[in-house]
Amino acid sequence: METCLICGEVQDHKHYGNYNICTTCADVMEDVMGEFFLRTICNCSKPQSHETYFSYLNSTSRYISDYKKITSRSKKYERHISEKASDAIENVEVPSKQRYFERMQAVVKWLEDNPAFYHYYFKKYYVCPACGASIFERYIKEEVGDWIIISCSECGELIKKYFAPKTL
């Protein structure tokens, strides 16, 4: 029987194609990658004033540059989310939430060691699957409780939904 690449437990179901990732780690991976995706598209759609020219270049070069935008800040995000998860582990009193944040740290560590996974994971998220609009330029973010929903602002297609506990 195969084991999960992240936690080492017996794999109950194969997620993400050729990656042996169990259901629990896959669920946490969706939350981590969803937040990373949102931070990336928010950062790309709100250029700094001193980056106007670079913003112009980025917005006029579509698919390949959008694909690269997704991974350009991965290391910074990994450090950020790992620190937040560590803080949450120390402060949370509910055992199930503590296990969630411990698993989140394991997922982030695995991502640090496997940067190619970003390319695999995000290959279908840089444009809307329904209308082809760049998600970096055309998205809507909606918060519903502990959930964040990202949709295309052109056609309303659901792009991503992820769990973002207020503890983080």
Structure in words:
With 168 residues, the chain is mainly alpha-helical. It has one domain (23-163). It is 51% helix and 11% strand. It has 6 helices and 3 strands; from the N terminus they run ααααααβββ. The chain has helices at 23-45, 52-60, 63-71, 74-91, 95-113, 116-122; strands at 139-144, 147-152, 158-163. Strands 1-2-3 form a 3-stranded antiparallel sheet, with helices on one face. Strand 2 and strand 3 form a beta hairpin. Helix 1 (23-45) packs across helix 5 (95-113) and helix 4 (74-91) packs antiparallel against helix 5. The longest helix has 23 residues, at 23-45. It is globular. The chain starts with 22 loop residues before the first helix and ends in a 5-residue tail after the last strand. The relative contact order is 0.16. Mean pLDDT is 79; it is low at 45-54.
